[in-house]
Specification:
Elements lengths: L6 E7 L32 E5 L8 H4 L2 E3 L19 E5 L3 E5 L5 E5 L5 E5 L30 E8 L5 E4 L6 H8 L17 E6 L5 E6 L14 H4 L8 E7 L8 H15 L8 E6 L6 H14 L9 E4 L8 H13 L28 E4 L5 E4 L1 H8 L6 H14 L1 H8 L6 E4 L2 E4 L3
Parallel strand pairs: 1-3, 2-4, 9-11, 9-12, 12-13, 13-14, 16-17
Antiparallel strand pairs: 1-8, 2-7, 5-6, 5-8, 10-11, 15-16, 17-18
Length: 436
């Protein structure tokens, strides 16, 4: 079984804020001591950090739930609870993080040490020292901590390579990688010998270096899930130059030019942007009989079917076995890389807007629906946050929450929808009677 894993779905939960405390100052020589309950501490964030030592998402196969610690509760003497430490989750370079619900890209983690907060911890609840007023100098009100952010994430690993080797199975990609780098990919005389991407570093005679990825062989229909195509086509997206390896000996009875067209069609079908990447055609196995004649026919077909105003891709005849033509190929690749910029992987429509952790002023503060049992159901981010941060063990806090609902217009809205005295109203699992 392959130990390479390049996709994962995980759950992350930031820590809740600590609850505020209700306490009163009681000292021997201090008359009329007032409120003295401190605030709760901040909940821990869940933070992704890039670790260049990781190569796959295998760690997320068995550990799919990540929960940060909650903040400490507030204490007496006005002391704040301690904030929780952030939960650090290490991911490999080249990891794209998406929100599973919306499909939007949250971040693309490519630099070693790069950090991104994927779930923010809740703020601590206020202690009763915060609620003292001239009218109510000794309040018995405190807040629960704010719930931490919780979300489901999709992780995709797209290997970091400057150059990608593409082509049909058994055209010699793994052999080429093994002779131009120190990589030792599995090589065999059968299809799909390569079942995971292999990476290697190339250093040219002129001293330039670049990373090359040997990607599992594509076949027709790869973009629709045939063979291993769908699983590994994503790894071509980060490359800036594509080396299109073609078996010029036609040893398997296929036409080299038809192979060239078929692979390009799969790249285009998977992601049209892949066709923006410059290609170099690598005419491999030139040490075999008929290769020279096949290359001549290939060039004629390519020229005949190419736009007369378009620049024909460079073609380099090589033999991985005899190492013929490799120096020229690598120098040309390095030169092309120098003048090829990075390609934008995601446009603005795919990226989630910069996170805002307050309330959307335009969004409704609450929504009203009716359950099958005729209970009125209240929902909405602002309302649910107020509910979660209310300490229902304290009568003053309950009365404060009732005033907040009234101020938001909940009573009027329920009345307008037909709610009558004694009807049940539900927020989450909490139920109360509507009083007209």
């Amino acid at each position: 079984m392959s130990m390479f894993l390049d996709t994962a779905k995980i759950q992350v939960k930031a820590g809740n804020g600590g609850d505020g405390m209700v306490a009163f100052r009681r000292e021997k020589y201090v008359p009329n001591g007032g409120p003295w309950g401190g605030d709760g501490g901040r909940g821990g964030n869940v933070v992704f950090v890039v670790d260049e030592g990781l190569r796959t998402l295998m760690d997320f196969r068995y550990n799919r739930h990540f929960k940060a610690q909650s903040g400490e509760k507030g204490m007496t003497k006005g002391m704040h609870g301690r904030g929780a430490e952030d939960l650090i989750v290490r991911v490999p370079q080249g990891t794209t993080v998406r929100d599973a619900e919306t499909g939007k890209v949250l971040t693309d983690l490519v630099e070693n040490g790069q950090e991104f907060i994927v779930a923010r911890g809740g703020r601590g609840g206020r202690g009763n020292i915060r609620f003292a007023t001239p009218k109510n100098p000794a309040p018995e009100i405190s807040e629960n901590g704010e719930p931490g952010q919780e979300r489901e994430l999709l992780l995709e690993l797209k290997v970091l390579a400057d150059v990608g080797l593409v082509g049909f199975p058994s055209v010699g990609k793994s052999t080429l990688l093994s002779v131009i780098t120190a990589a030792k990919p599995k090589i065999g005389a059968y299809h799909f010998t390569t079942i995971v991407p292999n990476l290697g570093m190339v250093r040219t005679h002129s001293g330039e270096s670049f990373a090359v990825a040997d990607l599992p062989g594509l076949i027709e229909g790869a973009s629709q899930g045939v063979g291993l195509g769908t699983q590994f086509l994503r790894h071509i997206e980060r490359t800036r130059v594509i080396l299109h390896v073609i078996d010029m000996s036609a040893s398997e009875g296929r036409d080299p030019y038809e192979d060239y067209l078929a692979i390009n069609k799969e790249l285009e079908s998977y992601n049209l942007r892949l066709m923006e990447r410059p290609q170099i055609i690598v005419a491999n196995k030139m040490d075999m009989p008929d290769s020279a004649e096949n290359l001549k026919i290939f060039k004629e077909k390519l020229a005949a079917n190419y736009d007369e105003f378009a620049e024909l891709p460079q073609i380099f005849p090589i033999s991985s076995l005899t190492k013929q033509g490799l120096t020229t190929l690598l120098d040309a690749t390095a030169e092309l890389l120098d003048k090829t910029p990075e390609f934008l992987l995601y446009d603005e429509s795919e990226m989630e807007e910069e996170a805002y952790y307050g309330f959307d002023e335009e969004a409704p503060a609450f929504e009203i629906s009716r359950d099958d049992d005729a209970t009125w159901v209240l929902s909405g981010d602002k309302l649910e946050k107020l509910f979660n941060m209310t300490n229902f063990d304290r009568d003053e806090a309950v009365m404060k929450f009732a005033r907040q609902l009234r101020g938001m217009g909940v009573d009027e809205a329920l009345r307008a929808r037909g709610a009558k005295d004694g009807d049940l109203v539900r927020i989450g699992k909490f139920e109360f009677e509507f009083v007209d």
